[in-house]
Amino acid sequence: MKNIRKIPFLRPNLVKQDTFTNYLAQIEQSRLYSNYGPLNTLFENRVLTEYYEGNRAVLTFNNATSGLMLAINQSNGLKGGLH
C-alpha cells in the first residue's frame, strides 16, 4: 500500500473559545441580545476606527444579502456609484 498523504480539505480554523468568552460574559451580564446591544455598538465603533479612521459610518446587518441590497440601493444616488 502506498503512503497516502492526508491533506486537510475545508477544515475550519475557528476562533479559540478563550478569545471570545469575555464577550459572551458581557452579553450575559447586560442581558441585551440584540443588534443594538453594547457589544454590537462596540464592534461597529471598532470597525469604524480601525478601518475608516472614524471618518465614515458602519452598520451591521443580520445577513449579507440585506447589507448588499441596502448598499446597492444607497449607492445609486452617489456620484460614481452603481447604476
Q: Which short descriptors sum up this protein?
A:
mainly alpha, 3 helices, extended, single chain, 83 residues
What is the count of helical runs? 3
Strand content: under 5%
Write down the Rg.
20 Å
Shape: extended
Strands, count: 0
Determine the N-to-C terminus distance: 60 Å
Category by helix and strand content? mainly alpha
Sketch the topology as an H/E string, one letter per element: HHH
Low-confidence regions: none
**Average pLDDT across residues?**
85
The major sheet is characterized as: none
Q: Estimate the helix proportion, in percent.
A: 40-55%
Oligomer: single chain
Summarize the entry for a quick read.
The chain has 83 residues and is mainly α.
Give a written overview of the molecule.
This protein is mostly helical and 83 residues long. Helix content is 49%, strand content 0%. The chain contains 3 helices and no strands. The longest helix has 15 residues. The protein is extended.
Protein topology:
Blueprint: H1 17-30, H2 38-52, H3 64-75
